[in-house]
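go over this chain:
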Amino acid sequence: MDSKTIRYLAGFAFAYKALLSFSTNTFETFIGILVWVAPLLMAIALFADIPYLVAAGAGITSLRNLYSFIRSLPYVGSDTAGLVLNNLLIALAYGFIILLVFNRKNAVKLSWVAAVFFVLGGIISSSSYWKDIISSDFRDGVRQILISVQSAFFYNAIPSILIAFVVQNAPEKQSNKVASTVKGTSTITPGSLNNSVVSSGVHMDYCPKCGASLPPAAMHCPQCGNALVSDPPIQYSTGGMLAWSIVTLLLCTIPGIVALVKTNGINKCTTRAEQEKMISSAKTWNIVGTVLGGLLLLATLANMG
């Protein structure tokens, strides 16, 4: 299974978690809103391949559970101690997810630590059912404990391990150089390149697409017509575009997701033309999402009035 498939599986896991939170949440408090927003943010980050946004979603979840733990301390009782401690364990587990995003070498090990905290939290949060096993209803007690552990395992532990594999198996950033240059000339053998366009000023002996022999200073392959010279892409600052895409996402979900994906792909293009096309596409989706979202917001405010 390749890294992209694993990343999508993790994204769907957090999207499903966000959907469950949305269907059961009343959204009466800011904390209640974060319960839904954090897994949604992590799902979008995984679909769009933005690791730092995964860390941001994990950070929101960690802080939310830490806040719930601290706030619940004065009211801890025998029946609520397990739930309160579970908040602390989940906060710590998501803290390890943040660490693994920035620690590629030990990502899988850190994810297993997070998984242990998640499962342990599931066991402890169901502590009230242990009394049922001992005193009254053994079958119902076991069932409730298994449901709690299963929820912690499938909704938290497994996605965290998938994120770790995504981080650890992510390809290294490649240099823009397509071959080593000796005395101003670079020799490229057939099949040595996956892309069909290379940077200006690099001479090739063979066409990277069909493998035909090339004359000196050729602009196109005489056999297949493949373009051999193109301007290299530039390092584009995507901070503003990313912020716009997140706002678009909040206003109108589908265009916002597409805009995030396009924005994330800007600096992954191999040519300047591809990069400019990607920038234009990201702007278009942001404009569409902002306009539609603005109209929906105005319509909602009008109905409320």
User: Anything to note?
Assistant: Residues 3-169 form one domain. The chain has a mean pLDDT of 75. The radius of gyration is 26 Å. The chain has three domains: 3-169, 179-230, 239-304.
